[in-house]
Amino acid sequence: MLKSVSAERLAIGSIAVSLLVLGLKLLAWWVTGSVALYSDALESLVNVGGAALALVAVWYAQLPADSGHPYGHHKAEYFSAVAEGIMIVVAALLIVHQALEVLWAPDLSDLGPLGLLVNGAAMLINLGWARVLIVWARRHHSPALAASGRHLMSDVWTSVGVLGGLIVALLTGWAVLDPVLAIIVALNILREGVVVISSSVGGLMDSAAEPGEQKQIETIIHKAANGALQIHDIRTRRAGQALFVEFHMVVSGAMTVAASHEICDRIEAALQAEISGIHATIHVEPDNKLEPVGINPS
Ligand SMILES: [Zn+2]
Ligand SMILES: [Zn+2]
């Protein structure tokens, strides 16, 4: 049955599941007044927001280039990830604020089995959905869904920690465990946010292709550029699924435009055949522009 479901459907399913889980966790917080359960609920809120943002971003990023965005819309993915990171950090600060307020006068008089059961049910739903995502992602080689499955699993562990801690608090009467757990959850969320932000800022800053990819590009050019004298000034930049590469190609000054263009087309085709999403721009130069260092095609 899993096989027939598409990635988009699963992404929408993720949002539906996280809304349900969020509702249950808010209910558990409302029944108990526990800051630890509040922190768990805020973590879910961030998940709902993040999943919705990601869905919009993935849809927008794959729109074809148009006159307003002639290089395509790929960077929308980074933008949504940075926005998600900021949301995560705000959630963590809200939790810390709330926890510090009750730290010196913790009160768990409303904490009872009902709130814990409701939160536990939410945790089990998350666990089940995480398994669905992970199994599906493995079968279909989807890194994005594998990542959200793993993220959901880390939320399950957070909930297990919170529930375990609250059960101890309930049994021993150590109410201070409640704000302490909330702060631990907040720190964990904060760590998540920093990872999300730092991995996306690189893309917004036009970072170069991975070193392995750069090597691969050089090898392909070396093989495909015969007829040219030299290739130099290769620059790459990654934009989500797209990879842009530019370089100078030196040919004999006597070569016709048609002949040099043919070499360009050959290199572009060779790059596109081996690297998905690559766009090449080639600047042709006569032989007085040879540089001391460059790729010299055989
Ligand atoms: Zn546009
Ligand atoms: Zn040059």
Short characterization:
It is built from 8 helices and 3 strands, in the order αααααααββαβ.
Number of distinct beta strands:
3
CATH architecture name of the largest domain: Up-down Bundle
Estimated structural class? mainly alpha
N-to-C SSE string, H for helix and E for strand: HHHHHHHEEHE
Q: CATH topology of the largest domain, anyone?
A: Alpha-lytic protease prodomain-like
**Bound ligands:** zinc ion
Report the radius of gyration as a whole number of Å.
26 Å
The CATH class assignment of the largest domain is Mainly Alpha
Number of helices: 8
Strand content: 5-15%
CA distance, first residue to last residue: 53 Å
Organism: Parasedimentitalea maritima
Membrane topology: Multi-pass membrane protein
Protein name: Cation diffusion facilitator family transporter
Domain Cation efflux protein cytoplasmic: 213-286
What does this structure look like?
The protein has helices spanning 7-32, 35-61, 76-103, 113-140, 143-172, 177-204, 211-224, 257-274, and strands spanning 230-239, 242-250, 278-285. It is built from eight helices and three strands. Strand 2 (242-250), helix 8 and strand 3 form a beta-alpha-beta unit. The protein folds into two domains: 2-204, Alpha-lytic protease prodomain-like; 211-289, Alpha-Beta Plaits (2-Layer Sandwich), CATH 3.30.70. The mean pLDDT is 86. Helix 1 runs antiparallel to helix 2 (35-61), helix 2 (35-61) runs antiparallel to helix 3 (76-103) and helix 4 (113-140) packs antiparallel against helix 5 (143-172). With 298 residues, the chain is mainly α. It has a three-stranded mixed β-sheet with strand order 1-2-3, with helices on one face. The site of one zinc ion has 4 residues, from loops. One zinc ion is lined by residues 66, 68-69, 73.
